[in-house]
Amino acid sequence: xxxxWDVLKESFNDALGKAEELKDLGQDKIDILxxxxxxxxxxxxxxxxxxxxxxxxETIDFDDNDKxxxxxxxxxxxxxxxxxxxxxxxxx
Length: 92
Prior knowledge:
Order of helices and strands: HH
Largest sheet: none
Distance between the termini: 34 Å
Number of strands: 0
Radius of gyration: 23 Å
Number of helices: 2
Shape: rod-shaped
Structural class: mainly alpha
Helix content: over 70%
């Protein structure tokens, strides 16, 4: 037979577990906002770099320009992380 202490302990543990879930959800949402902000900044930086290259008469070839390829790869990685976080949050 359960005592009142057992019931209180179980209730406390349930509440603690729920609080942990909510904390993790909040952190995931913060991470999503950070990733979106980084993506916006990186896209702006990419656009500025391409515009500068264009103004300088440089050929804009994404396959032969390591700087552009690196920027694009970083954006692709951010997008992947963002999709994973959004998928995780949508399951909750």
